[in-house]
Design a protein that fits this description.
The termini are far apart. The N terminus is likely disordered. Strands 1-3-2 form a three-stranded antiparallel beta sheet, covered by helices on one side. A two-stranded antiparallel ribbon has the order 4-5. Strand 2 and strand 3 form a beta hairpin. It has two domains: 58 residues, Hypothetical protein rpa1041 (Alpha-Beta Plaits, 2-Layer Sandwich); 208 residues, Rhomboid-like fold (Up-down Bundle), CATH 1.20.1540. By secondary structure, the protein is mainly alpha-helical. The chain contains 13 helices and five strands.
C-alpha cells in the first residue's frame, strides 16, 4: 500500500497532471480532504472513502461547466459556378455605348439620373435607372471591373437570381437613402452604389454564418470590418461619391443579413431563373417609366 494511504481511501484517476491539479483545486475549494498522489509518473487524487461520492460529483459538475458546447457542423459555403457578374459588367459597358457620356441634352441622363429632388417628388424609378448610367469611359470601366469581381462573388454565393436582386435592391435603396440625406440639391449616376451594396451583402452573409456557428463577436464581426475597409480603400478617392457608397454598403448589409437569416441555402435553379427574369423586368419597367 502506498505511503500515506488508508484502506478506506479511494483513488480518482485523471488523464494528465494538469487535470489532476485542476481536480485538486476543485476539491480544495469545496473543502474536501484529498491528496495528490504520484506513482510511476502517473497522477491520482486520493480521497477518503466517505467523501468519494461527493468528490466524484463535484468533479463531474466542474467538467460539465468547463466543457465547451459542441459546435454544430460547419455550414458548407455555397459556391455556385457562374460568370454572370462578368456578363453584367459587359452589359454596363454596352449600355454606355448606347447612352454616351454625361450630357444635359441626353434623354437618358435627363430622365434617368438619380436627381434627389425628382426622386423625393415621386420619380422612384430614378433610383434604378441611375445605376446603369455612367458619366465617362473611365467611370463605366471602373465600375465594370468592380462588378466582375464583387458582383461575381455575390452571385456565386447566392446564385444569379438572389444575387441580382441583392445588387439591384441595395443599389436602389442606397440611391434613395442618399437622396434623403442630401435633399433636393443632388444628382448622381453609376453602378458603384450597387457594387458597395454587394460588398455589404457579402459581409453580412458571412457575419450571420459565423454567428450561426456560435463564433464569438470578436470573430463574427470581422467580415463587417473588412467591408468597411474596402469602403475606405475604394470608396473615398478623389471624385468619389462617398455618401452614395456608404449608403449602398449599409443597404447591402441590411439586405444581406435578411437574406442570410431567411435562406439557409440558395434557392433551386428554377427559382433563381425566375428571380433573374424578375430583376431584368424591374430594370425594364424602370426605364419604361423614365422614357415613357
Amino acid at each position: 500500500m502506498p505511503e500515506g494511504a488508508s484502506p478506506e481511501e479511494g483513488r480518482l484517476t485523471p488523464s494528465s497532471r494538469a487535470e489532476a491539479e485542476a481536480w485538486a483545486l476543485v476539491l480544495a475549494a469545496e473543502g474536501v480532504a484529498h491528496r495528490l498522489v504520484v506513482s510511476d509518473g502517473r497522477y491520482a487524487i486520493g480521497v477518503a472513502g466517505a467523501d468519494q461520492v461527493r468528490a466524484v460529483g463535484l468533479i463531474a459538475r466542474w467538467a460539465d461547466e468547463n466543457t465547451e458546447a459542441a459546435l454544430p457542423p460547419a455550414e458548407p459555403e455555397p459556391d455556385i459556378p457562374t460568370n454572370a457578374g462578368i456578363w453584367i459588367a459587359l452589359a454596363l459597358i454596352a449600355f454606355f455605348y448606347v447612352t454616351g457620356a454625361w450630357s444635359e441634352e441626353s434623354e437618358y441622363f435627363r430622365r434617368g439620373t438619380a436627381d434627389a429632388r425628382r426622386i423625393l417628388s415621386g420619380e422612384l424609378w430614378r433610383t434604378v435607372t441611375a445605376l446603369s448610367l455612367h458619366s465617362d469611359p473611365a467611370h463605366v470601366l471602373g465600375n465594370a471591373f468592380s462588378c466582375a469581381v464583387f458582383g461575381t462573388l455575390l452571385l456565386r454565393r447566392w446564385g444569379v437570381g438572389v444575387g441580382a436582386w441583392l445588387l439591384l435592391a441595395s443599389g436602389a435603396l442606397g440611391n434613395l437613402l442618399t437622396a434623403l440625406w442630401h435633399g433636393s440639391h443632388y444628382r448622381s449616376v453609376g453602378a458603384s452604389t450597387a457594387l458597395f451594396g454587394a460588398i455589404g451583402a457579402l459581409a453580412a452573409t458571412e457575419f450571420v454564418r459565423r454567428r450561426r456557428l456560435r463564433l464569438g463577436w470578436n470573430k463574427a464581426w470581422l467580415p463587417i470590418a473588412g467591408g468597411l475597409g474596402l469602403l475606405a480603400m475604394l470608396g473615398t478617392g478623389r471624385g468619389s461619391d462617398f455618401t452614395a457608397h456608404w449608403m449602398g454598403l449599409c443597404a447591402g448589409v441590411v439586405l444581406g443579413a435578411l437574406a442570410a437569416r431567411s435562406l439557409a441555402t440558395p434557392p433551386a435553379p428554377s427559382a433563381q431563373a425566375a428571380l433573374t427574369l424578375a430583376a431584368l423586368g424591374a430594370i425594364g419597367i424602370a426605364w419604361a417609366a423614365a422614357l415613357g
